[in-house]
Specification:
The chain has about 190 residues and is mostly beta strands. Helices cover about 0% and strands about 55% of the residues. The strands form 3 sheets. The chain has a 6-stranded antiparallel beta sheet, with no helix packed on it. Strand 13 and strand 14 (about 160-165) form a beta hairpin.
Length: about 190
């Protein structure tokens, strides 16, 4: 058992019989009232966020999570298929667990999956990925206003806003957490 003093972002706990991940927490001590911990918990099954108040020092059940490296294989229309790098076993993973950043992951990328037993409860995607621009409108000379962007389709099929100097065939670095352009990669 852990107490609220052991809370940290990314910790997994069992709350109301289901596994939750702590996204945020803050210890509050209002004037003449007792201290408490306000936490935002994300249900790993359905992705719902719940705000919960715990008494300071209250015990909660911490869930031990194993992290394993998997290789992304393909999307079969219903789920994303991953292969365990040690046993070569293939497993399907739901998009809710992977989050929005999965649309920037290309085949062969390594992803760390968080598991409780054989159940997948979370995923850590690489922060930055390098993707080739396959379609974008050409930048017109003279269109050099500060911060001007245009849409570009990358090899995974996702659309990213890029600066005007990016052309088809360029390789760019994209942040999977925000979906934003980071920089152009020199070949």
């Amino acid at each position: 058992m852990a107490t609220t003093g052991d809370f940290r972002v990314g910790m997994f706990i069992r709350y109301n019989g289901e596994i939750h991940r702590i996204d945020e927490y803050i210890h509050r001590t209002p004037g003449n009232l007792r201290a408490f911990v306000q936490a935002k918990l994300r249900n790993v099954k359905n992705g719902r966020i719940t705000e919960v108040r715990f008494r300071s020092g209250e015990e909660v059940e911490e869930v031990r999570v194993e992290q394993k490296e998997f290789q992304y294989l393909f999307f079969d229309g219903a789920s994303y298929q991953f292969m365990d790098k040690e046993t070569y076993e293939q497993i399907p993973v739901d998009e809710k667990i992977l989050g929005d950043g999965v649309k920037y992951i290309k085949e062969g990328e390594t992803v760390i999956l968080n598991m409780v037993g054989s159940e997948i409860v979370g995923a850590e995607l690489p922060y930055n990925v390098e993707l080739k621009v396959i379609e974008t409108v050409p930048g017109v000379k003279g269109d050099t206003a500060t911060g001007a962007t245009k849409p570009a389709t990358v090899e995974t099929g996702a659309t990213v806003q890029v600066p005007l100097f990016i052309n088809e065939g360029d390789i760019i670095r994209v942040d999977t957490r925000t979906g934003k352009y980071v920089e152009r990669v020199n070949p």
